[in-house]
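Hello again, I could really use a second opinion on something today. For a while now I've been wondering how a particular protein folds. Please have a think about how the structure follows from the sequence. Here's the protein in full, and shout if anything looks odd to you:

***
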Amino acid sequence: MTPAHEQAVLPAPHTSDVPALLERGRTLATPVLREVVDRLAPPMNTVAAYHFGWIDAMGRPTEGDSGKAVRPALALLSAEAAGGPCEAGIPGAVAVELVHNFSLLHDDLMDGDEQRRHRDTVWKVHGPAQAILVGDALFALATEVLLEVGTADAGRATRRLTTATRKLIDGQAQDISFEHRERVTVAECLEMEGNKTGALLACASSIGAVLGGADDATADALEAYGYHLGLAFQAVDDLLGIWGEPAVTGKQTWSDLRQRKKSLPVVAALAAKGPAAERLGELLAADAKNPEIDDFSEEEFATRAALIEEAGGRAWTTEEARRQHATALDALNGVVMPEEIKQCLFALADFVVVRER
């Protein structure tokens, strides 16, 4: 199986130290995040700690994988892009990370995913009720964290976060509805992914600037960067959802096909002309009427993946990731910022698109 990233190679990454940027985001945001999560009543605080990778299923401290921390890094950089200290973006970094994890807890349950970051998901360990409650609690905490800043700019930031969260939920609802439709257009899929992924990355890329007092024009330009970066991120995620290596992604082979997702490679392949697109359409139409898709053999999923690639869905999605990446970088031309901060934003964009998980 060829990893998706081999078809999504971009020009050589910019020279900024991305691991250091991500680590800075973790270092500054995690202590505040832990303090906020500790406000939750038992057992929600423990369940949340397990989800974040701070403890194992038995409650023992662990150094588990808590994610890439792209959103906190973006929130801190956005504060600096607007001319302020990175610390001004910490409440935004924490709030966005809380909303992101609220969505993960609910998504894992709705999608039936039993693994995240190479270990059992919260609903699998603690049950569906706890996954729902803790997700809801994290969303409430996100608003609480921002409003506690107590400034007019905190109110502006909160409005942006709640709007982004509503769009994220819209996107998840669209994604679920698409699973039960035989056909979805490319435009519909891009709208869904812009809501589900682009909106929160857009918020992360602007919220630090807003907290630091940036005007709307600056915040909007940073938001556009994050939105298109989110679309690029999701395009790569869609490639990995079909062709990613399970040992790297932490998910099953053909995971998106198992969940009947109408992701970009699938939708682009169905929109193409030719025998492969027609055969794929016939198979997926039959699958939609079959509740036993989980019983398919590996060969049946491999057949569908091969037809998607033959019809051009993989190549189109790879090119779409490049297009959205370029559009994200162009948006930064609308912001006057220190050159080193711009290079950091460029580097993070490269990192998001050139990845294996």
Remarks:
- The chain has a mean pLDDT of 91.
- The beta strands are 115-116, 119-120.
- The longest strand covers residues 115-116.
- The chain has 16 helices and two strands.
